[in-house]
Specification:
alpha+beta; two-stranded antiparallel ribbon
Length: 253
């Protein structure tokens, strides 16, 4: 069983100590509230300030929350809004395909589920909102990479492509070819590349700047998603992703 990282817990507690009544606090007050030594609080503040999570008021010497938290909060709000806007489109796709439908976003080199609508069928995949997935071997990840910048693709290749199953694409040139086919089709395919027995298709959701903001995917047991049905579901997920993109203001050709 994993154990929490104490220094991270302390840093999180420190950040949440600030509130409307106490927007600025000095080292001594924070140490008292957190029941920590002043030297410990000072080290935590120093690190948080370097990363932009807190900033020191030069007039008072006290600390307040930094703009990095504002940026993260704005990003979280955008994703929550995106989930809300996407939900009706995902529900319609679920009714049509009867397989698990998910919405994912790219974050720090991985795909993160924002929403998962489970298949009504007895046998279904295990997926929950908040789960992180590799980029190189999932349909969602490949749908994102197919329309990402060359720098982003190179960063993924540079971090290595660990094999998750015997079908995982681990060769950079083979992955680039797979991404080219994804752009050609309009949707990506994962044939048991991330998990044995699971197939998936996915398509990108674009914003009005033609950037990928999310990916919609359909996944299910390989025996229910043979090649001919994956083509059918690929077209369905591509249609849903385009409809959602238009709903979000994108102008697609």
């Amino acid at each position: 069983m994993s154990q929490p990282v104490q220094v991270l817990q302390r840093a999180m507690r420190l950040l949440t100590t600030f509130d409307h009544e106490h927007p600025e606090m000095g080292v001594t007050e924070l140490a008292q509230r957190l029941d920590l030594h002043k030297a410990t609080v000072h080290r935590i503040l120093f690190t948080l300030e370097l990363e932009g999570f807190v900033q020191q008021n030069p007039a008072t010497g006290k600390y307040r929350l930094g703009f990095r938290l504002f940026e993260l909060g704005a990003l979280a709000a955008e994703q929550i809004s995106l989930r809300r806007e996407a939900l009706p489109f995902m529900q319609e796709l679920l009714r049509e395909c009867q397989e698990t439908v998910d919405l994912a976003v790219f974050d720090s080199g991985e795909m993160v589920y924002l929403e998962v609508l489970e298949s009504p069928q007895p046998v279904k995949i295990a997926a929950k909102a908040g789960r992180r997935l590799p980029v190189h071997c999932t349909a969602s990840g490949k749908a994102y990479l197919a329309y990402a910048s060359e720098d982003e693709v190179e960063a993924v290749l540079a971090q290595g492509m660990e094999p998750c199953t015997p079908n995982t694409i681990c060769d950079p040139e083979a992955l680039r070819e797979d991404l080219r086919l994804t752009r050609e089709r309009g949707y990506s395919i994962s044939r048991e590349e991330f998990e044995v027995g699971i197939n998936a298709v996915a398509a990108p959701v674009m914003d009005n700047g033609q950037q990928v903001v999310a990916v919609v995917a359909i996944a299910g047991p390989a025996y229910r998603l043979p090649p001919d049905r994956m083509a059918e579901l690929g077209n369905a997920v591509q249609r849903t992703a385009r409809e959602l993109s238009h709903h979000l203001g994108a102008r697609l050709a």
